[in-house]
Automatic annotation (TrEMBL):
It is found in: Endoplasmic reticulum membrane; Golgi apparatus membrane. It comes from Lachnotalea glycerini. It comes from the Bacteria. InterPro entries: Glyco_trans_14 (IPR003406), XYLT (IPR043538). GO terms for biological process: chondroitin sulfate proteoglycan biosynthetic process; heparan sulfate proteoglycan biosynthetic process. GO terms for molecular function: metal ion binding; protein xylosyltransferase activity. It is a single-pass type II membrane protein. One of its GO terms (cellular component) is membrane. Keywords: Disulfide bond, Endoplasmic reticulum, Glycoprotein, Glycosyltransferase, Golgi apparatus, Membrane, Metal-binding, Signal-anchor, Transferase, Transmembrane, Transmembrane helix. This is Peptide O-xylosyltransferase.
Length: 318
């Protein structure tokens, strides 16, 4: 009896932590609240502040975590659609797996919020330990217009996402269109060998240590394949999973654009994505999801404050 009691105490003491990566571009007050909601001795928090954003004294954000360790990733340019977002995800896996062996690695945007307490979130992942929470829009092969994001070279994408009329209009939009036309004329297809397994979905995910390490080992191949592609962050993890044994560990195997697969409540029907407001409070809090996206302090701060207060008060009661 004493042996089992000692073993139980040992196991509890050795319980693995979770790593959260927050990819932030703006909404700094929201980021502060997100850090406080994730702050728990069972979590470490990794923060990426986009390289193109002028933010001074980023160590300021450490002050919002009392129990979690806070790390800052090397600042990269992560404009939507560019390979930078995939690079940030890999940088997170690389840094976090070297820091500690975590039970789960969660990728969140800076405009996400948890909808559950940390006790509830940890209990959920303990219950489903070993499952991979990765979202798929559909089974491969992907539709042709999606495939062209990765099969063609998008040399001018950085100008489309840049600043200045000349750069965006001439170098960006016109240059991109002409480049695509020429590549289609000469039948360029840089991903033909993985055409049948290339997959895509949401990059926001929660994965095990094993999958995070596997992604790191594939970094060179990923970088080679995603250079000058469009929105590769939406295909990297999905393709790795679908072409490996990790496919057997998916939490949701429907491959039908079900966001239960990654436990992020995101509404693409009313926006790109829709920004939640106070009118949606009951809907999202009763959704059963662990996290939700997208929030914006300028659009509606009330729902952010209500969720924050609800979770904080519940955690204090527990």
């Amino acid at each position: 009896m004493l042996y089992f009691l000692v073993l139980l105490v040992f196991q509890r003491g050795e319980k693995m932590k979770h790593a959260y990566c927050i990819v932030a571009f703006n909404n700094w007050t929201l980021l502060e609240k997100l850090i406080m909601l994730l702050d728990d001795e069972r979590n470490d928090i990794y923060i990426h502040i986009d390289k193109n954003i002028k933010v001074y004294h980023i160590d300021h954000f450490k002050g919002f975590a009392r129990y979690s360790r806070v790390f800052f990733l090397n600042r990269l340019s992560g404009s939507w659609g560019t390979p930078g977002l995939a690079d940030i995800q890999l940088e997170f896996y690389k840094m976090a797996t070297k820091t500690e062996r975590y039970l789960y690695y969660h990728l969140l945007s800076g405009v996400c919020l948890p909808l559950k307490t940390q006790d509830e979130i940890h209990s959920f992942f303990d219950l489903h330990q070993g499952k991979e929470f990765v979202h798929f829009v559909s089974r491969p092969p992907v539709e042709e217009y999606i495939y062209k994001r990765y099969s063609l070279y998008h040399f001018f994408l950085k100008y489309v996402r840049g600043k200045g009329f000349f750069r965006k209009a001439l170098l960006g939009v016109i240059g991109e269109k002409l480049s695509i036309m020429l590549q289609e004329l000469f039948k360029i297809d840089r991903q033909s060998d993985i055409r049948d397994i290339l997959s895509y979905g949401s990059n926001w995910s929660s994965v095990t240590h094993e999958l995070a390490v596997y992604a790191v080992t594939q970094t060179d191949e990923i970088v080679k394949r995603t250079r000058h592609t469009f929105a590769p962050d939406e295909c990297v993890l999905q393709t790795l999973v679908y072409h490996s044994d990790f496919k057997n560990n998916l939490y949701c195997k429907d491959y039908n654009d079900n966001y239960k697969a990654n436990q992020r409540y995101i509404d693409w029907n009313r926006g790109n994505p829709y920004i939640w407001t106070a009118n949606d409070y009951d809907e999202i809090m009763n959704s059963g999801f662990l996290f939700a996206r997208k929030f914006d302090m300028d659009t509606d701060s009330e729902i952010i404050n209500r969720i924050y207060n609800e979770i904080i008060q519940k955690q204090q009661r527990d």
